[in-house]
Fold this sequence. Notes:
416 residues; mainly beta; Porin; 16-stranded antiparallel β-barrel; 20 strands; 48% strand
Amino acid sequence: MTLRPLLALVILNGVLSQTAHAYDLDDNVRLEGFGTLGAFKADDPIASVHADPREKTGSLNEVRLDADTVLAAQFTVNPHGDLKGVMQFVSKQDAYGSTWPKIEWAYLGWDVNASLNVKAGRVVAPVFMTSETRNVAFAQVMARPMNTMYQMNPITNANGVNFKWNTRIDDKEFGLEGVAGKSAVTNTTAKYQAKQLFGLAARYTQGPWTLRAGLTEVKIDVALSATTAAKVAALQASPACSNCTAVLNDRLVLTGVKAGVQTIGAMYDDDTYIVQAEWATRPGNSILVPDARGWYAMAGKRIHAWTPYVMLGQFKITEADLGLQPTAPAYASAIQFYNDSFVGLGRGDRKQIGAGVRWDFAPKLALKMQWDQYKVAHPAYGTNPALSYDIPAPPATPSAFDGKVNSLTLNLDFIF
């Protein structure tokens, strides 16, 4: 049974009603949900911009209605008790182009006491400041999380256990949250099966200020996509490279890949001004999850129902050079390309700036318009999951992409 007819009725009710609310089906079951109806267009005929790096389709100088569009429903059993069962379905385009609803959360939660909650099942992976509301655009000022940061770990949930502890001393609040389990995520490069995932985050809040620091460690097995596997096989068999097989065996690790994400974040929100920023670094032992760092900052001001805002961010690969060597001078430019592009996978160094406005025109309804500009540091080999295009190796004609793309987004966000 598909959820789409039910969700369509809920959306219609939410848009037309000034008192959108959660639905208690009876004393024991509650239905809640959220969603976004979005339109998105990038202006470049060469580079395709993906609103979410986990999606198959981006905007290639065309309007897309499936980029930010999300429909979700959450069912809670025993919502008023200490022991709860929660199941959340999310319908959103994935790496295969499907929008079939998937189970984002499915857990049994227990409020041990006023300070401690534990969950078991499919639970949130608390990697970033907004991990718990990553799919809930209504809960965020911007149209979507900044990919200069959130690309560093696309995992949103884990099959395992999660705990959250909070305590308050005067006007100060301290919190810890952790997760242990397994997970998986797929993009156009490969499928990443996280056999082990551990995360811990600490949060401190006082008045309008919130500070957060987090550490996540994963151990991954990787299954390359057909396209990526073909690129790797062709390079291993190429007579142009004298050490490709040895280097790829050492640097293109597929089994037991180790990666981590360390984050620091801060937010100021006094109900008028809002400032949010995060910084992260990601060490790893495979060029499929290369060493990288990223950051973003956003600032806005609430003026009645309107919130104009600006933002900027940067993503940078810090992975060491591969050290591939040509067998002859004639192959030097081709081998240099594979060094620079990490075997043709791309080097995603880029900057992003943007501006937008949010209009809360009705209870639990918000309309957002946002402009973004992406500037790729290395257009000849800078393709990445968020901004993709062909990067032909020499002696083929280099890509004509100039490194700069603009996009415009118009989204209607809602909760119920």
